[in-house]
Design a protein that fits this description.
434 Repressor (Amino-terminal Domain); mainly alpha; Annexin V, domain 1
Length: 422
């Protein structure tokens, strides 16, 4: 299989002989028909438990005829194709009943170990992946690892998929790490390898994977295992990996990463650091924000999604929020959008604390987009602060717009009129 989860050849049920062959071909059928569908979602589409589909694709048992039929139907197989899959399942079952005994396996192992790795690799390249996988499981791990290293990566990946996970991970752990990563096959196999390898070995493998594959593999781990693996990586590489994990992953694993540190965030471009902060739980993100410098935080918040930025900023007092907001006039609309997403009292506190020139720009942008919300914020300010703010509005028509909405005799309206005329 290739790194993106595609199957190298179209599934061929007529080539199936063993349970391992059937498992490999069923997996290939699913990936060919639904390359972007998770195993859980596919099982649901089949009307089967996830474990049933998992077992069918691993070759641990011969799946029932009904199971094979439902999987084939879900993969758009019809007519004669469905018949072929049923026949394939029956052949695998017949082979299972009459498979060689342990003595013949031992004889096969002795015969295989008489060959050196290059000759054995050449022989296994001509075998079906399931047969090659069976042979590798019979011979000593060091010879099997050397042999797997010599098989072309795409072919070797198909052999790895056909193996049981534990011996597969054992062989891959013995190989040169770059060669092993090339033979991981797809994201599911990468996830199995990362979950079963020692954290230091898994980290080395992650460094060699494409970021999306590495993130998918880490994202499938339990929180503790994921944290152990990530802690083995250089801190500067955490953010690129974590921002590509499934949303929600960082919120559950980040509390276990005391070193998801300021240095890791600082090593990233502002947009990457913004994404990492957005994916943390709020408490952890706020702690990290409090330990960073204002200039770098302004750059980060300028790149953050407005809903995420407003949620994080709302945790701070108005004076601190002002230090985090970009001061450039070009960012006035961005700031206005943030203020409109915050609690009215928080937005009012920010506008009351900022210098009137900047505050008036932000308030004008709020009036233009959500006048009702802007007036609510203005009314939450003290009358004197509201008057000072409106005095700096560049367009008198905006003042008229505000006064037209405010109650004529209200302290806020009187303060605006008084300040505007002075």
């Amino acid at each position: 299989m290739s790194g993106n989860g595609s199957f190298p050849n179209a599934p061929r049920p007529e080539s199936i002989k063993t349970a391992a062959d059937l498992a490999l071909q069923l997996r290939g059928l699913r990936l060919s028909a639904h390359p972007r569908l998770s195993l859980s979602a596919f099982a649901q589409a089949c009307g089967l438990p996830k474990t049933t589909v998992w077992n069918a694709e691993r070759g641990s048992v011969i799946p029932r005829s009904e199971t094979v039929h439902l999987i084939a139907v879900a993969c758009h197989q019809t007519g004669e194709q469905l018949v072929e899959w049923t026949r394939a399942r029956e052949r695998a079952e017949r082979y299972q009943r009459g498979r060689p005994n342990s003595e013949s396996s031992a004889n096969e192992a002795r015969w295989l170990t008489q060959m050196d790795a290059p000759r054995l690799a050449a022989r296994l390249t001509r075998e079906q992946p399931a047969s090659a996988a069976h042979a590798l499981e019979l011979i000593p791990p060091d010879l099997a690892a050397e042999c797997l290293s010599l098989i072309e990566p795409l072919r070797a990946a198909a052999v790895v998929v056909a193996m049981d996970p534990i011996p597969a991970v054992r062989l891959l752990s013995l190989m040169d790490r770059r060669l092993a990563v090339e033979r991981l096959g797809d994201r599911d196999i990468a996830a199995v390898f990362i979950s079963m390898a020692e954290p230091s070995v898994a980290a080395e493998a992650l460094l060699l994977m494409p970021v999306n594959t590495a993130a998918s593999a880490v994202g499938s781990l339990e929180s503790e295992a994921a944290a152990q693996c990530i802690l083995e990586l250089p801190a500067g590489l955490w953010s690129p990996l974590l921002i590509n994990t499934p949303r929600g992953f960082l919120k559950r694993v980040e509390p276990l990463l005391p070193g998801m540190t300021i240095n890791a965030l600082r090593a990233q471009a502002p947009e990457a650091a913004a994404e990492a902060l957005s994916r943390m739980n709020r408490r952890c993100a706020v702690v990290r924000i409090m330990r960073m410098e204002f200039p770098e935080l302004r750059a980060i918040f300028s790149e953050m999604r407005q809903e995420d930025a407003s949620e994080l900023l709302s945790a701070f007092v108005p004076g601190l929020i002002l230090e985090l907001l970009p001061s450039s006039p070009k960012k006035s609309q961005f700031v206005a959008n943030l203020l409109m997403r915050m609690e009215v009292s928080v937005s009012a506190g920010v506008l009351a604390s900022v210098v009137p020139d900047a505050g008036s720009r932000w308030f004008a942008a709020m009036l233009e987009n959500k006048p009702t919300r802007a007036i609510e914020v203005l009314m939450a300010m003290s009358a004197d602060d509201a008057g000072s703010l409106c005095r700096e509005l560049a367009d008198p028509k905006l003042v008229e717009q505000v006064l037209a909405v405010l109650p004529a005799g209200s302290p806020t309206a009187q303060a605006i009129i008084r300040r505007f005329r002075s």
